[in-house]
Amino acid sequence: KRLDMIAQKIDSVKKQDGETILTMAQDSTTRKKVGTYSTSGIHLGKDIVVPLPTIGVTSETCTNVAETHAAHLEILAAAGGTSADNVYENIDCHMTDSVSHNKHIAQDLAKKYGRETPAGQFFCNIHTSLGIVRAINSGLSEIETEMGVENIFKSVLVGVTYEKKHGSVVAQAVYAFLALIDAEHSAKTWNKHADFVGWLKTHCIEPHFFQYRDDRFDGLAHGCALVLYLWEYCFAWLRERTDINNRLACYVRSMENVTYLKISLAVFAAFGIQLVEPFNATMFSKKTTHSSLLQFYPSLMQKLDNSISADFFAFEKNVFGFCDEYFEGCKIKY
Fold this sequence. Notes:
The model has no long low-confidence stretch (mean pLDDT 82). This protein is 54% helix and 10% strand. The chain is built from 13 helices and 5 strands. Helix 1 (2-16) crosses helix 2, helix 2 crosses helix 4 (105-113) and helix 11 packs across helix 13. Helix 4 links the parallel strand 4 and strand 5 (120-123). It has a 5-stranded mixed β-sheet, covered by helices on one side. By secondary structure, the protein is an alpha/beta fold. It starts with a helix and ends with a helix. The protein is elongated.
């Protein structure tokens, strides 16, 4: 019944107001431990979003993505007592993420349903935002490979296995450091959040934590900044608490003597302030338009080719040309 109402709403919107844009949005996942499914919805103009049923998928190929869209259209058509051709004729554009298997769905569906002019297609910014942090992390990994990961861990007192899922030794160190003292893992016996926060308060130091996820927008860059803020405090606390000697605590203690880590943390955090956060703020701002992005992207790419100067770490101005409002807001957050 609800699907029937959605199908009728789509049809009536187009008949009553030919100016309203109908956008079909879709995203899917086949990630391990997440699931294999596709979610979809249709935006009626700017204010109304109608969800469509979640559909299971076997893989994310160009053909499968187009067939998933077609399945949603067929479901709506059956519920509304019409044809999928008629339903799809009302769709003005598609919104997907910018991975390769989504690039040609408009053309594939136009061919399937006999549309002379394919629907438009635009891409959300999620992968671009995440890609900046991943690229920096990947760059660090390449440096570490040349240095030799075993050389980085020479001063570590416990046997440590480098887990490639973190992308770099730096990212793994951030995860380990925060896992010992953050609130998220407080139920674990090896986590010492309550003890560390108590120590901070007795020394009149303001505790700062956030729910760390290295693959969430600026998560890793922000995590690097947080580790730097807590660096001296954490090691001072551990020097006093010699009874905290679990394997994780010993690993974190050893980080204090790894010069490479502190330098890399500072560089990554600086990129967060100068690039990652202002980029996200620009993308998510209501002031951002397609016209402004046409000027913004070429300018940013040109500045990314420039050599890093001392201004990069001074934070007096944004070296990539982001507006002062966004840059100052990022500095406050960090």
